[in-house]
Specification:
Blueprint lengths: L8 H17 L4 H9 L3 H9 L10 H12 L2
Length: 74
């Protein structure tokens, strides 16, 4: 559901950081995040929110997500 079971522990930490950034720093409401999870739209939500940032402000989580998206959300 959240993608953790499909990736190793080191990548789970990256996914957690991505979700934290999405909610804490990009002002995504919990209800919006839960709705995206339920509808299978997490990748779209992540891209929508993170692409509003300058490339230098996204940290390592968003580039990691772009590389791992198909593995986390097949």
């Amino acid at each position: 559901m959240f993608g953790y079971s499909r990736i190793p522990p080191a990548d789970q930490v990256m996914l957690l950081g991505l979700y934290q950034g999405l909610i804490k720093h990009l002002d995504t409401k919990i209800e919006e995040f839960v709705e995206a999870v339920e509808k299978g739209r997490v990748p779209e939500l992540v891209k929508e929110k993170f692409t509003t940032l300058p490339e230098s402000a996204g940290g390592g989580y968003y580039p990691w997500f772009l590389q791992m998206e198909k593995q986390v959300f097949p």
